[in-house]
Amino acid sequence: MSGSESRAQAVHQITNREPIAVKKPKSLEKIWATDVFTLVKMEEALSKKAYKAVKKTVETGAPLDPAVADLVAAAMKEWAMSKGAYYFSHVFYPMTGATAEKHDGFIITDASGKAITEFNGSLLIKGEPDGSSFPNGGIRQTNAARGYTAWDPTSPAYILDTENGATLCIPSVFVSWTGEALDKKVPLLRSNAAMNEAAQKVLKLMGEKEIAPLNSSCGAEQEYFLVDANFANLRPDLMLAGRTLFGAEAAKGQQFDDHYFGAIPERVQTFMQDVEIKLYRLGIPAKTRHNEVAPGQFEIAPYFEAANVAADHQQMIMTVLKTTAKKHGFVCLLHEKPFAGINGSGKHVNWSVGNSTQGNLLDPGNTPHENLNFLLFCGAVIRGVHLFGPLLRAVIASAGNDHRLGANEAPPAILSVYLGTQIESIFDQIRDGKIDGVDEGGIMDLGLSQILPFDKDPGDRNRTSPFAFTGNRFEFRAVGSNQSVSGPLVAMNTMLADSLNWIATELEAELNKGTDQAAAVIAVLKKLMAEHGNAVFGGDGYSAEWHKMAVEERGLKNIPTTADALPALKSPEVVKLFDETGVLSPRELESRFEVYAEQYVLSIEVEAKLVVDIAKTQVYPAAMRYLSDLAMAGASMSDMGVELDNRVAQTVAEQSNAMMSAVSKLAEAMEKDDFASEEEHMQYCANDIRGLMDEVRSHVDALEKEVADELWPLPKYQEMLFIK
Ligand code: ADP
Ligand code: MG
């Protein structure tokens, strides 16, 4: 079958597909967290004393007695087996950002050969996957490959129920034999502890008597594309690289703004419901769903949770989206930029910190100018973004996200912070030394008798900022759709810990001078704003003026590519930040740089190979067939005495030649392997390799517009984006 026939067949299959039925649950309660070993289930299964011990660990992170772990293990096994699970798995989150699992059976045999099951505290607490195949950035030599997974009781165990059977999944950390972090969870837990410690100091100085442990919260909005599998399977670039490496723009893109919040297509809605049912069973509070800006683009957002649990849940959401899409005949694309020229996908990470005694410390309340705790914590974030902007850029750096940042409707690669008019004006006043007054939201009265008046927010939203205050939390909007949220959460918690430590020192000095509390807070924040206020920006982050002003007047950095961004992980400030807060040792941090740099290089190498392959084996043959068709038509017309205009043939020939010479240059460039450093290798990929890939693409896309549609082998943008 020729490429074009397969395209036609794909359309046929899509239009004639049988809809998939999704069995709707009777009620939310019937399915909510049925597959999770929740505290409620533990309470039922454990003695009062054991349950109290576990609960304390879950809620405060206090250490758990190994004897209690034995009891939990027994109860967990019982529960899992009652749900049909005969296998368990420590689930962990290696530095690649993926989710990893190794399955072990509960089964063992006794002396008589009878099968019995076994699962105890030590099996629950510790696993030992053959970890040598996970990237470790030089922390572990392959000859010393031991790595351990260890149970994280603060994130609940659950059952993953697939067509292939049920498995008890135990969220875990992953460390080397030396105890060094090899994963994304260890630093997240440590960053939370560092933030808690620093916050306690500040709150104590503020005279708070009772201070519960602080935790960070996260609500992550996940954007994704759905493409029918019949099309995706015909695109090696989508299947292997997750994005289209070629594709001319469709006649209709997103210019009508008719997709955003539009009616959700029926087939997609069925898919979404299926996803939600699965997530509810896993205790993941999926809350919003809607169409996104680009055709074929959608979003799902769960209700926010404790950062550590939210991060684990976020990984599951990505898995559930992908597996459920398959069942519905879609491919779910989590790549940050699957299609050139239209919106990419992000993952806005909403983040706040709080506890049960002081509440959300980023909630300004009705009188923010009098809410000193809020002002201190908000100030701490401003300082963090200013001092560690390059770190925030580094933790969202990936080959995929580079295509999105600074492009269509995505935040720029300059880290600034948006506060909203009300809070910005308070911090402006603090900068001048005194708070005079504050804007209020007020009431929205539309003057329509049938519409009830409602409260208006004190400030508008700013969708152009990479890091925005949105009323009671910050929203890190530059995170990529395919990324783990852990890296960004670690960076935010850690920079906050550093700022709160600084604030504690300054505040203590002021208070020791005998300054009253409010004046001391203003004095500290005034100093903070003088040094770091430059990071606050409320204007249009997409504008060219801002790009110029940010760099030239404000001294902020514009960091366009991953190759430019990742070296921040080696900068003395960042090494010191992580070392002093105890979140990552210099060696652990260095290993992260190595792993991320390698991943970047590998991604671009895979793409470059695909560019060469597809251009040579699919595009060039199609162009040649078209040329020979044109030549034949020309010859037979000429026999009849009619000369055909040969401009099309000329263009096709020229573009084909140019494409093949760009392909040769790219293939040759890919041979180079003598790099002095990872930094140099990344720069080579970012500039030379990507430049040549773009060159090939420009010719392929030009050919797509010339070659007869029926000969074109690759599904086109209009097909993939609009046919559902
Ligand atoms: P929008 O698209 O308007 O930004 P959404 O409702 O899609 O908002 O997503 C907002 C996310 O922020 C949700 O996951 C929500 O639960 C989360 N969120 C709300 N309050 C907080 C908070 N205090 N801390 C962290 N996340 C929060
Ligand atoms: Mg949002």
Summary, kept brief:
The chain has 724 residues and is of the alpha+beta class. It is built from 23 helices and 19 strands. A hairpin with a 3-residue loop joins strand 14 and strand 15.
Structure description:
Among the domains are: 29-183, Ubiquitin-like (UB roll); 223-345, Glutamine synthetase/guanido kinase, catalytic domain (Creatine Kinase, Chain A, domain 2); 600-722, Four Helix Bundle (Hemerythrin (Met), subunit A) (Up-down Bundle). Helix content is 47%, strand content 13%. Helix 7 (185-205) packs parallel to helix 15 (486-512), helix 10 crosses helix 11 (307-327) and helix 15 (486-512) crosses helix 16 (517-532). It has 724 residues and is an alpha+beta fold. The model has no long low-confidence stretch (mean pLDDT 91). The radius of gyration is 28 Å and the shape is globular. It has 23 helices and 19 strands. The site of magnesium ion has 3 residues, from loops.
Main β-sheet: number of strands, strand sense, barrel status? 9 strands, antiparallel
Rg, alpha carbons = 28 Å
Quaternary structure classification: single chain
Number of strands: 19
User: How helix-rich are the residues, as a percent range?
Assistant: 40-55%
For the record, give the distance between the C-alpha atoms at the N and C termini, rounded to a whole number: 23 Å
In CATH terms, the superfamily of the domain at 29-183 is Glutamine synthetase, N-terminal domain
Which ranges are low-confidence, i.e. pLDDT below 50, for 5 or more consecutive residues? none
Q: Can you tell me the overall shape? A: globular
Mean pLDDT: 91
| Class by SSE composition | alpha+beta
CATH class bucket of the domain at 29-183: Alpha Beta
Predict the CATH topology of the domain at 29-183: Ubiquitin-like (UB roll)
Question: What compounds are bound to the protein?
Answer: adenosine-5'-diphosphate, magnesium ion
Q: Beta-strand percentage?
A: 5-15%
**CATH architecture label of the domain at 29-183:** Roll
Helices, by number, come to 23
